[in-house]
Design goal:
The chain is α+β, with helices and mostly antiparallel strands. The chain is built from three helices and 24 strands. The strands form five sheets. Strands 1-22-19-24-17-16-15 form a seven-stranded antiparallel β-sheet, with no helix packed on it. The chain has a seven-stranded antiparallel β-sheet with strand order 2-3-4-13-7-10-14, with no helix packed on it.
């Protein structure tokens, strides 16, 4: 059997990267350059940390999952904004219900089936106030974000179940697919697509190109943001899909933003 070379075309990417990095020789820095470089690096770290203090971060890896129904778990992100993460096991379902406020849904993993509509990762679904949903199910299991939901508010959740018995489907729901057109450039490798606007603010999907790096006095991406796909570094936080953050002050901003492989980000900003 022939022994594989570390640089064979079918080797995994990390093997190639490791072989290249091991071949690199460190370049010593002169003392006159070392101190200024260290000073700039520490200043950058301090600036990123200070910017991050303007936000509350909720990593998915630290989710406080609670059992809701058979095969259904809920992770509460922000009670005030009525934002939650829902995980459905394959075949699990949520009961039919009527909405009393606009409910926004973004799928991160799997398939979410709302009657004849199937929502996939990266898709956005809006159920307007007074609309009615049948059972929400998933064949393969799903992870999705909801905003504007009564989950966690028992009296309101019961109201939504009872009023679903009243005839009439209300306003039609709307689904925007991840591959749909309508993107507009924000510059610096960032494209945006408006999803929904109401009296309280607007919801938008941001698409960040691979290799994007922006720094220096950036405005906040939104009052809330959720990483849907990819990787994203914001200030001193390396976000993973499902991570969520919200602003705690109106003048919050970012010191830097970067993505190696690209990212898809759901953001909500006040009017």
């Amino acid at each position: 059997m022939n022994k594989s070379s570390p640089l064979d075309p079918d080797d995994r990417e990390e093997t190639v990267e490791r072989a290249l990095s091991e071949a690199l020789t460190p370049i010593p820095l002169e003392p006159s350059r070392r101190a200024p470089l260290r000073s700039r690096l520490l200043a950058r770290v301090a600036k990123a940390r200070a910017a991050g203090e303007g936000f509350i971060r909720v990593p998915l890896s630290q989710a406080d999952w609670q059992h809701m129904l058979p095969g259904v778990r809920v992770h509460h992100l922000d009670p005030e904004r009525r934002a939650v993460m829902i995980e459905l096991a394959p075949g699990a379902s949520l009961p039919f219900h009527r909405h009393h406020e606009d409910e926004e849904c973004v799928v991160l993993r799997g398939d979410v089936r709302l009657g004849e509509i199937v929502v996939h990762p990266g898709d956005y679904h809006l159920a307007p106030a007074d609309s009615r949903h049948g059972r929400v199910t998933s064949h393969e299991g799903a992870l999705f974000y909801l905003r504007g939901t009564p989950i966690g508010h028992p009296v309101e959740a019961l109201r939504d179940l009872v009023t679903a018995l009243v005839p009439g489907d209300g306003a039609p729901a709307r689904t925007i697919r991840a591959g749909d057109d309508g993107w507009h450039s924000h510059g610096d490798g960032i494209d945006g697509r408006l999803l929904h606007r109401d009296g309280a603010g607007r919801s938008e999907m941001l698409r960040i190109a691979p290799g994007t790096r922006v720094s220096g006095g950036l405005p906040a991406l939104g009052d809330e943001c959720l990483l849907v796909e990819g990787d994203l570094g914001i200030d001193d936080w390396a976000m993973q899909p499902g991570d969520y953050q919200r602003s705690v002050s109106g003048d919050s901003g970012h010191s830097e933003l970067a993505s190696r492989d690209g990212a898809l980000l759901f953001v909500r900003a006040a009017a």
